[in-house]
Write a structure and sequence with these properties.
The protein has 346 residues and is α+β, with helices and mostly antiparallel strands. The protein has eight helices and 16 strands. It has three domains: 89 residues, Rossmann fold, CATH 3.40.50.20; 131 residues, ATP-grasp fold, B domain (D-amino Acid Aminotransferase, Chain A, domain 1, 2-Layer Sandwich); 75 residues, Dna Ligase, domain 1, CATH 3.30.1490. Strand 2 and strand 3 form a beta hairpin.
């Protein structure tokens, strides 16, 4: 009797148990065995990991897996080099260098596509106070993000009111005069911030929102929309919808479409968003050379239902609610790369 393929999920740090559990379920669904492990558990020939048995996680020492769902994604970074050395030759779906696809690099790639670049929000790298002031005056409401930041961490919002620059750090409001701008510019440059126009993506109730479209390669090596999730800021003065500083809410995709836009699932807006997302995932793979299996697009929709791209996350996308929807195609693609390596498929 043929042995089932063995899938390992590699973690670099502790994460909530929901996603590993969903991956175990997905592996069983796809006819594979599964365990997860921390990099610290990798030995020269075996791995200390955790396997789900009778709905309980059981620690054990396992053989190297046949394929790995890499949920660390730090290849090429010195701190993690030894782990990747030990596992060399085992197929993984994510093979690009860790943290190599930062925001500005992704934006530059998208700028080369005439159609998709129309969804890019005007932005600039913070270099000098004159160009920064011109950008703020042109757009009036601006958000500052760090190039490698995630989950809205360290995001700042700025609004120009008369000659006063109001900067909100998600907790406190700071006021600057025009004369203060050179000092503020140097602070932003030191932290590698860039500026982006603030998009008015707000529900009829006044809550800022974004739509997360999670795309994943599937078992046929095709991009698919795994799920849609909604992020709402329920704290009126915090406009960064994925910030830990706001009381965040969510909604099902169907309820959101119905209440926000008066549309149903698989209606015109739903289909337009999915078409955009799939074109974006395919383009990013083609233009960058690939090496990744998941893309998370955070989108805004203005009053005219125009799609704006807040961010395209290629590093380590996650979810608070849709773990199984994320795991099913992820494990299917991990099995695809295993079959590809074995020559079982072309």
């Amino acid at each position: 009797m043929n042995r089932k393929p063995l899938i390992g999920m590699m973690l670099g740090w502790k994460i909530p148990p929901d996603l590993p559990r969903a991956c175990a379920v997905a592996a069983a669904y796809h006819g594979a065995d599964f365990y997860y492990f921390r990099m610290s558990g990798i030995k020269e020939n075996t791995i200390i990991g955790m396997k789900l048995e009778n709905d309980e996680w059981v620690s054990g020492e396992f053989p190297y897996p046949d394929a790995i769902y890499d949920y660390t994604r730090r290849r090429g970074i010195a701190l993690f080099a030894e782990a990747y050395r030990k596992l060399e030759g085992i197929p993984m779906g994510h093979t690009i260098k860790g943290r190599s696809m930062n925001k500005s690099k992704v934006y530059r790639i998208i700028q080369r596509n005439e159609q998709l670049s129309q969804s890019l929000i005007p932005y600039m790298t913070v270099k000098d106070s004159d160009s920064l002031m011109a950008f703020i005056e042109r757009h009036e409401k601006v958000i500052f993000k760090t190039n490698g930041g995630y989950l809205g961490k360290n995001a700042l919002t700025v609004e120009l009111k008369n000659d006063v620059i109001e900067l909100f750090d998600q907790q406190y409001l700071h006021r600057f005069s025009r004369e203060d701008l050179p000092r503020l510019t140097e602070m932003l440059k030191a932290k590698k911030y860039f500026a982006q126009k603030m998009i008015h993506s707000v529900t009829p109730q006044g809550h800022p929102f974004h739509v997360r479209v999670h795309l994943s390669k599937n078992g046929q090596n095709r991009w698919t929309v795994a799920f849609h999730s909604i992020g709402l800021s329920l704290t009126p003065h915090v406009r960064v919808t994925n910030s830990e500083s706001t009381y965040r809410g969510t909604s099902t995709w169907g309820d959101f479409l119905r209440n926000q836009f008066g549309e149903k699932e698989d209606g015109p807006l739903h289909l337009r968003i999915d078409d955009y997302a799939l074109r974006m995932a395919n383009y990013l793979e083609e233009a960058s050379g690939g090496g990744f299996q998941e893309v998370a697009l955070d989108l805004g929709l203005d009053d005219r239902k125009r799609i704006w791209l807040f961010e395209a996350g290629i590093g380590l996308p996650g979810t608070s609610y849709y773990q199984l929807q994320m795991a099913l195609p992820a494990i299917a693609y991990t099995l695809y790369v295993l079959k590809k390596q074995r020559g079982e498929i072309e």
